[in-house]
Structure formats: C-alpha cells, structure tokens
Amino acid sequence: MQQRQVSSHYRNHWQVVMRYAKRKKRVNVISPGPIDTPLARKLYGTEGGFQKAYKQHPRGSFGKPLEIAKVVYFLSSEDASYINGHNLVVDG
C-alpha cells in the first residue's frame, strides 16, 4: 500500500473504533501471514511454487486456519476485554 492508502485505512479504522467504543463494542483487526489453505495453494500456481514459498517462511511453514481461529476466539473473549483498536499481526 502507498503511504496515502495506509493513512486513509488507519484513519478509517480509528473512526470505526471510536464510534463503536461508545456503544461498548470493540473493533480489532487481524492481519494474518500466509495460511495453508486450498486457496493459498492455488494462488502460488503450482505445488512446487507453494512448497518453495512454504519453506522460505521464517518458521519453515505457513500458519494453519486453526491458529487464526484461536486468535479470533481470544479477541472475542472477555480475556481480551481491554483490547480495542488493535491490529494484531499473526504471521509466525
């Protein structure tokens, strides 16, 4: 993204956060890294392309959908009741 797009996205995110905070609603963003899904495999064009990218990831593998689901669950829980307006990067 260009700087102007990032600034616009950030400003819009905070507008939403402020609007819903008054209603006791939390707004957070999850930015996942590469996740091993059928769609991700197709986006790399070939199985070989996917495997190359998979092995080049710093931890040696992509995330699994369940790992992202656990983050969603946590942010939805009362344990995260004081987390608001956060962009949580989940990328291994």
Structure description:
This protein is mainly alpha-helical and 92 residues long. The chain has helices spanning 3-21, 38-43, 47-56, 65-76; strands spanning 29-32, 87-90. The longest helix has 19 residues, at 3-21. The protein is elongated, with a radius of gyration of 16 Å. The relative contact order is 0.21.
**Fraction of residues in H or I helices:** 40-55%
N-C termini distance? 21 Å
Structural class: mainly alpha
Mean pLDDT: 86
User: Main beta sheet: strand number and arrangement?
Assistant: 2 strands, parallel
Order of helices and strands: HEHHHE
Please report which band the strand proportion falls in: under 5%, 5-15%, 15-25%, 25-35%, 35-45% or over 45%.
Answer: 5-15%
| Order of strands in the sheet with most strands | 1-2
Low-confidence stretches: none
Alpha carbon gyration radius: 16 Å
Say how many strands there are: 2
The number of helical segments is: 4
